[in-house]
DNA sequence: CAAAAAATGGACCGGCAAGTCCAAAGCTGG
DNA sequence: CCAGCTTTGGACTTGCCGGTCCATTTTTTG
């Protein structure tokens, strides 16, 4: 890729990433060939390597970043305003719907596997995503605590971590089995935990 | 593979699966070549295709089954006797230890991705594993309920599903980020949920 | 408008790894 | 001990696909 991208160049680059993301979702990383992406995006081989000098891995990493950004975006605005039971429920519904609709392809997981955990870039993308996601959930827990709607004894960060793990696992299981009940169970149980702490105020053992 | 396997043949087949599992754990599915497995298991190309006529995918599927069996085995005997707070804690420790030790390779997940979700065989393996795992957890919850140590109002299956999702997600996140705190949070929060229900007996909303 | 830089097209290359094949060796049962 | 199997060895083929290269067109800039 050249130092300075003209608007046309930027458009092409974006088109490649978006088209590649589609292809990868449809065919999976293992099955997707550079030629498929070339066809889909109406580009040539040289363009692919022009905009992603590192080759396929380079492109894959860019797509991973693109997909990672969408994960949180797709949960907005609910994820940013978890300050009432109603908003928690709306967020829950959006998450369930998003992943049920996505079907059985986990773009990020697949990309991650292909590019390799060891690659610093790949790990950084996922780590950042998880950190932001957990932070948003923790903010939500704290917002509820501030309003006295759940116990202030609850460790907001740990609760958020557990909830995030549940969502992740629920999605993973759904990808594998086609059954979203685990995702729903994890979300509902996690949210109910907050509610119980609102009423019970039982001290942790 | 022939209809009837002699003891020697069976031994070779088993050796291939075990050796392949090692190679796949070390190098990852994408990087592992048939020749690597051939070297590791001291076999020849023809043997690989003799015992796994379907080629690489066939072998990968066999390894997936092998790994799936080990997942539950490694949690025994604790997973089969979740009838006291102490046994739950022991189970928790075993899970954390097993996956922390496993490092950043998820053999099953990787295999699954390579072979493809659509493959009926692959999906069946994972589905069966999840069902058994969840069932074991649900049995544990019921055992606690029978002893009056947690509320009988709790939906054992749903609680088990949520806990399983948490474990899955915790492992996934650990694979990606190298941080096991989500796995711990999911396990601890899940078990604490049972304890709270023991004391509080608050009705669900 | 000319020169430089960027964007594009697409033919071509080369390596790699899955899969094939046949011959040879080793068991096993009658 | 031999006839028919299972098991084994390893050279060879094959197709695929990432990556290279250079010519050409388009855009920018001074």
From TrEMBL, chains A, B:
<protein>
    <submittedName>
        <fullName>TetR family transcriptional regulator</fullName>
    </submittedName>
</protein>
<feature type="DNA-binding region" description="H-T-H motif">
    <location>
        <begin position="33"/>
        <end position="52"/>
    </location>
</feature>
<dbReference type="InterPro" id="IPR036271">
    <property type="entry name" value="Tet_transcr_reg_TetR-rel_C_sf"/>
</dbReference>
<dbReference type="GO" id="GO:0003677">
    <property type="term" value="F:DNA binding"/>
</dbReference>
<dbReference type="InterPro" id="IPR001647">
    <property type="entry name" value="HTH_TetR"/>
</dbReference>
<keyword id="KW-0804">Transcription</keyword>
<dbReference type="Pfam" id="PF00440">
    <property type="entry name" value="TetR_N"/>
</dbReference>
<keyword id="KW-0238">DNA-binding</keyword>
<dbReference type="InterPro" id="IPR009057">
    <property type="entry name" value="Homeodomain-like_sf"/>
</dbReference>
<dbReference type="Pfam" id="PF16925">
    <property type="entry name" value="TetR_C_13"/>
</dbReference>
<dbReference type="InterPro" id="IPR011075">
    <property type="entry name" value="TetR_C"/>
</dbReference>
<keyword id="KW-0805">Transcription regulation</keyword>
<feature type="domain" description="HTH tetR-type">
    <location>
        <begin position="10"/>
        <end position="70"/>
    </location>
</feature>
